[in-house]
Design brief:
The chain is of the alpha+beta class and about 375 residues long. It contains 10 helices and 8 strands. It has a 4-stranded mixed sheet, covered by helices on one side. A 4-stranded antiparallel sheet has the order 2-3-8-7, with no helix packed on it. Helix 7 packs antiparallel against helix 8. The longest helix is centred in the middle third of the chain and has 75 residues, at about 90-165.
Length: about 375
């Protein structure tokens, strides 16, 4: 059982309450503080200080400072008045219910703060993508203007040449016209014809005992459904390239090549918002997280990509190879070497000639042996 602290000091004004709790020789980094509008608690083993406040305080406006020998609270009263006592009155059941109600309000408050923070981050990401798009459009407009300027100069040069030929002497023109050109004999015009093209059914040349025809057909059906969903999403949304997941995917790849990994993440995030089954966007976003040294986010996105790249077949083999390698690299950074080796082995099954994957597996095995 913890030892209750009773030798604290407190004083009040009409608007604030000041509480000073002695740490009794315990280091300040061992002290854990919790508070809500009706409760103040400090846990510094083996000691415990807690008090059910006489009335409600503004938890957001209140402060706590941990010093070398004391924890000092400055609490702002929600309703200005003199309490005359710090501890609330009531039996155990009443105080317990009072605490539970206060903790529920605290949880709701924290939940609202998290939702507000998440909404703010989404707004920032959306503005970043829009800003990058605006820069790209301005750059494209500048290039187009320069191209049109060059075309105009070339057309002016051709106009000058035409003017010179018109003003040349008639005698020169007549002598030129009288001389027959080499190859004046005309060739007969080729007769018109019609070419018909017939497409054969897709063939699976692999022997039946080794065939993955069923998986191939399932993959093709999933791809067709994904393309249909993208077209429906594009039709349902207002126009503009920002509503095209394939355009956002290409834009994210451009940002990645430029080294602007956060902008690439924003573009890939917008793409999967429009098409939740776009495995390439999740896999590419995993690569961005890996570049930004966020292995947990990388592993999560690579896992999502692998779950969408089912059933495994030859058409999605390279995509699965990249996703396995990226998740393996992320798990290695998280020091989960055994799981990383498992992913690299799966990648090696797809690309058995890859010496770099074999080298990564050997490096991880050496690390495991060194830790053992």
């Amino acid at each position: 059982m913890p030892i209750k602290v009773t030798d604290y000091k407190w004083e009040e004004t009409e608007s604030t309450v000041h509480i000073s709790v002695p740490l009794k020789g315990v280091k300040k980094d061992k002290a854990d503080i919790y508070s809500n509008d009706l409760l103040v608690k400090v846990n510094f083993p083996p000691y415990l200080f807690e008090v059910d406040l006489f009335a409600a305080v503004d938890d957001e406006a209140s402060t706590a400072v941990i010093g070398n020998s004391t924890v000092d609270f400055t609490l702002t009263k929600r309703v200005p008045s003199l309490w005359t006592r710090l501890q609330a009155e009531g039996d155990h059941a009443q105080l317990l219910q009072r605490r539970q109600d206060a903790e529920e309000r605290k949880r709701e408050q924290l939940k609202q703060l998290q939702e507000d923070r998440r909404a703010k981050e989404q707004d920032v990401n959306r503005l970043a993508v829009q800003k990058q798009m605006q820069i790209e459009e301005e750059r494209r407009a500048a290039v187009e203007a320069a191209r049109q300027s060059e075309i105009s100069k070339a057309v002016e040069g051709l106009s000058d040449l035409d003017q010179l030929s018109v003003t040349s002497s008639p005698a020169t023109s007549a002598s030129t016209a009288q001389q027959p050109s080499a190859g004046a004999a005309t060739q007969p015009v080729r007769a018109a014809g019609k070419i018909s093209v017939k497409f054969s059914a897709r063939a699976f040349p692999t022997p039946s005992r080794e065939s993955y025809r069923e998986q191939e057909e399932q993959w093709q059906e999933k791809q067709a459904e994904a393309r249909k969903a993208v077209q429906e999403a594009k039709a349902a949304l207002a126009g503009g390239p920002g509503n095209d997941p394939l355009w956002l995917l290409d834009k994210g790849k451009d940002f990645f090549k430029q080294g602007n990994y956060q902008a690439a993440i924003n573009a890939f995030t917008s793409a999967v918002t429009l098409d939740a089954n776009m495995a390439a966007a999740y896999s590419n976003r995993a690569a961005c997280h890996l570049k930004l040294l966020d292995p947990q986010a990388c592993a999560a996105d690579a896992s999502k990509a692998l779950s969408l790249l089912l059933p495994p077949c030859e058409e999605n083999a390279q995509s699965r190879l990249r996703a396995f390698c990226r998740r393996g690299a992320a798990l290695a950074q998280l020091e989960d070497y055994q799981s990383a080796i498992s992913d690299y082995i799966e990648a090696l099954k797809i690309a058995p000639q890859s010496e770099s994957i074999r080298a990564d597996i050997e490096t991880l095995r050496l690390k495991i042996a060194g830790e053992g």
